[in-house]
Amino acid sequence: MTFELYSSALVNNRFKDEYGNLSKEGNTICGIPQRSFPLNWKGIPEGTESFAIVFIDYDNSEGFPFVHWLACNIPGNVTSLEENASREADFFIQGMNSWSIPYGPYENIPEDLTLHFGGPAPSSEHEYEIVIYALDRVLNLEKGFHYNELRKAMRGHILSKATLIGLYG
Which of 119, 109, 101, 88 is nearest to 25 (CA)? Predict the structure, then answer.
């Protein structure tokens, strides 16, 4: 069976407005969207001990990929994350997102907002990518880890990965 990732937040290859800056539900703090996507996966490879999730905007207008969410050590027997798990669940570790980079109107973002899902807030349409990695071990990382640390920790331990790509804005 193929390892696959799904989300009800993605409809016709577009992320629903409520998960980003177009939300009319007040899901932002300091202009940063806070409600993480519901995610479901199946076809888990044998030997999976944990999962890691990376949510990135490769169309960032500043010219570099923008990391919106990093999560790891999701137990290998888990097959989904509920909507807003970034804020409400406590059974996995989250890394530092790119909202921590001071620029433009986002100069003094509270640290708490950089250690959770920080959703899409583009001024024009962007393409976003969510990747889930099935890993053969639990990673030796601590809260606030960086993307480069995650990549190095996963090296040689990725059993499979699944990707969702969608537009927002």
Answer: 119
Question: What three-state secondary structure class fits 150?
Answer: helix
All structural domains of the chain, each given as residue ranges with its CATH number in brackets, are 4-168 (3.90.280.10)
* 4 close to 41: Cβ distance less than 8 angstroms: yes
Residue partners of 123: CB distance under 8 A and separation at least 6: 61, 169
Of residues 107 and 16, more confidently modeled: 16
Measured on CA atoms in the order 34, 168, 75, 135, is the torsion positive or negative? Answer: negative
User: What's the CA gap between 21 and 9, in Å, rounded?
Assistant: 14
For residue 92, report the phi and psi dihedrals to the nearest 5 degrees.
-150, 170
Q: Which of 43-52, 53-62, 127-136 has the lowest mean pLDDT?
A: 53-62
The pTM of the whole model exceeds 0.85: yes
**Burial status of residue 99 (CB atoms within 10 A of its CB: 0-12, 13-18, 19 or more):** buried
Cα(146)–Cα(19) distance, integer angstroms = 23
